[in-house]
Amino acid sequence: MNIEIEGLKKYYSNKMILNIDKLEIKEGSITGLIGPNGSGKTTLMRIVSGLDLDFKGTIRYNGSLLNEEIYKKMTLVTQKPYLFRRRVFENIEFPLKVRKVDRGIRRKKVEEIMERFQIEDLKDKKGHLLSGGESQKVSLARALIFEPELLLLDEPTSNIDPESIKIMEREIIRFNEETKGTVLIVTHNIDQAKRLCHSIINLEWGRVVS
Amino acid sequence: MAIDYIVEGFKEAVKLLIGFDKEVYEIIFLSLFVSISATVVSSIIFIPIGIHLGIKEFRWKRTLSRMLYTFMSIPSVVVGLLVSIMLSRRGPLGKFDLMYTPKAMIIAQTLLVAPLILGLTYSLAKNRGKEIEKIGKTLGAGRRDIILLIIRELKIDLIVNVVTAFSRAISEVGAVMIVGGNIKNRTRVITTTISMLKSMGDYPMAIALGIVLLLISFLVNSAIYKYTGDD
User: Fold this and answer.
1) Over pLDDT 90: what percentage of chain B?
2) Which member of A62, B17, B46, B134 has the greatest number of CB atoms within 10 A?
């Protein structure tokens, strides 16, 4: 999914949080979003994902403005993911269930992705009882299972062990290469941005500086 | 001694309950039937509406909040009066001949607990439903899926709300007295019977029914405590 942002301005009680004249995120790319705290990274992710509609300017997704159909083609993974009070299997299955995917296919896909993320042992655990690192892995698996056209990741690997980071980065790259899905990732880790991204956007005080 | 008649009342009450007195048990079952039906009907209608209103942003939301919270404490006699006006022979729904029937009592109690279920659900969804809505949206859920998701995620709190509504229904006397008429073997429920027996000075049966009311409350609360504690 190609994203074109033009004249984007966002205010919080008269204070300007974002001011982006023009920005394009190419379809099929992995783009890193870096910048200090309070630079507007998370706000930009919320706006691009359609969770925050209170802004000025335009955002086009493959040439169209945001609508319900576009919503269904994208997803957002946050730093502190919310997992449902149901089994991990059901958590990961959820995006397929709301898309009315056949039960047998759902089961197969969930088992495959759990194996790739090495979380088979969590299958029957309740989502809301998992540790932070486990939640982040499950949350990424839940986002990737329906192969979105746009994957938005807001610090998805913060505070987790190196082995889990390796698995998650591998799966993000696999997703991008196999499905040609667009990825926009917020990270504070420059090394991670270099490992994963085709291009990096540096945001400061709500503006794109490089 | 002044206390003797109370002790005697308790003894007689236990006798009535253990002896499975037909009249006592008919009253108990009708009370449960009316209050459970009203709570179920009200929950099915007003929980989804409460969630929808709670997560949606609209112009008169604050005014609606105030109105809902006001109606939550509406007196049961007022509901009874309104329903009786609607159902009486000369009323707009008089042709259905529902006055002084269990159906009329269910309608009255459904309306009585509706603001409670709507208000509590609305408040719950307003405070905690938005986070769940956000996640549902980012995973591609439509409006219906989101409401079902919120119901499932908040089910423990919703069950507690439903039990609160049931407690209000089973313990009220005003609405069922007005629209039911406390007719023997037909519309007599626990609260209306206690009220009548007290005025007649017949304490044993009144105490027996009082014990049953307390017992129902204890059992319902124990079940809820066990369910929420296990989760």
Assistant:
1) 69
2) B46
DSSP H helices, A49-101, are 68-71, 88-98
A134 SS3 class: helix
CA-based nearest residue to A2, from A21, A26, A23: A26
Alpha helix positions (H), chain A: 41-48, 68-71, 88-98, 103-116, 132-144, 162-179, 190-196
With left for phi above 0 and alpha for psi between -120 and 50, is residue A78 left, alpha or beta? Answer: beta
> d(Cα B188, Cα A129) in Å, to the nearest integer?
48
Measured CA to CA, the distance from residue B148 to residue B145 in angstroms comes to 5
CB contact under 8 A, B139 and A85: no
Cβ pairs bridging A and B (under 8 Å): 40
Neighbouring C-beta atoms of residue A17, cutoff 10 Å? 19
User: What's the pTM?
Assistant: 0.84
Cβ contact, residue pair B140, A99, below 8 Å: yes
- Taking the Cβ of residue A75 and every Cβ of chain B, the question of whether any pair is shorter than 8 Å is answered with yes
Q: B141 to chain A, minimum CA–CA distance in Å?
A: 6
Q: Which residues pair with A208 in a beta bridge?
A: A203
- Rg (Cα) of chain B, in Å, rounded? 21
Judge if ipTM > 0.90.
no
DSSP symbol at B202:
-
Contact A53, A8 (CB under 8 A): no
Each residue's pLDDT tens digit, A75-112: 999 888 999 999 999 999 999 999 999 999 999 999 99
Kindly list the strands in the beta sheet with A64-65, ordered across the sheet, starting from the edge strand earlier in the chain: A15-25, A3-12, A56-61, A64-65
| Partner-chain contact B142 A98, CB within 8 Å | yes
Q: Give A-chain residues touching B145 at CB under 8 angstroms.
A: 98
Intervals of chain B under pLDDT 70: 1-2, 229-231
Block means of pLDDT (10 residues each) for chain A, length 210 residues? 90 87 91 88 91 90 86 89 94 95 95 94 93 92 94 88 92 94 91 90 82
